[in-house]
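User: Structure please.
Assistant: Input sequence and predicted structure:
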Amino acid sequence: MRRQTGNGAPSTRSASNRIEYFDLLRCVAIIAVVMIHAAITEWHAIPPDSARWEQLTWINSALRFSVPIFFMISGALFLDPEKRVSRRSLFRRRIPRLLIAYAVWSTAYAALGVYGPGGDGDATDFLRAAVTGHFHLWFLLALLGLNLGTPILRTVVEDRRVAWYFVALAIPFAGVLPLLTGIPVAGELLADVLGSMRFDLVLGYAGYFVLGYLLHTTTLRGRALAVWGCLAVAGIAVTIVGTSGVSRAAGETDERFFDFTTLNVAVVSVAVFAAAKAWGDSHRISARWDRVVSLVAGASFGIYLVHPFFLWLLRRFGVTTEIAPPLVGVVAVTVLAFVLSLGASMLLRTVPRLRGVLA
């Protein structure tokens, strides 16, 4: 799958001016997203003191980098100072696209849940579900907020020292302190202090947005990559141990260490992004694999939007992760849902005016 450029010089773009390692990251991230959602339904349904629950926890913990990767790719693209993004373009193209996608898919999933099999058919419930959105559509609202903040964040990255300072602030306020609020007594006091402080500037996913640009314009090699690899392993371990510990203590699943903004997830996300960037600087995808990678990467938005439907459909036919040991069952369900979602996304992208909006 790997091929160095002919003159040995670093190259991250294909002949079509695509950034190839972004496409690779999109492929890996979207498969990881489908796998997380395939595993997490059973994970929530079984007690946290079972061996099967622990195995599902390992799978989920290892794949939490998926959504941050998408935010980082968007930041690398949208914050590039060489790409002029006018507010007019922002409000006439990007934001309407996200709003339309959210409205259509939220309504579709609400109709399925309320008027489909097992639904109560209540119009009020349908309206509430259509407004609040299906569980995975939060991603569109997060992207909407980041798009609104893009003009400000572009100013932040004009000075790399300011940009790194912005990321450094996000580490304690978004990645560490929220986890500590769960500590008895001291955590409650910390929550009160943070609530009074209301320092929301670096909360949410803006840190990943800026970090994506910074990492895209920096290449880590050798020892630095090895260090980040070790940190990634440690991050996954913290996610597993932390999730297991707080869930067992509560007697039910607790996802606080699964949060995408936590430091344990962030270090894994940085390691994956940096490794892909280093690979892309000196390699090209072979022609054979390039067609597959570009196809899946181009359909990733649609796959993200439609895959919960196919996971639901498979469950209706009795195809769940419980059909086999956790890893085998999760992989089997993921492959089926992914293939069906890829086909649906490709089909939607052939419909005039829907390409790039609904898929």
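The longest strand covers residues 2-3.
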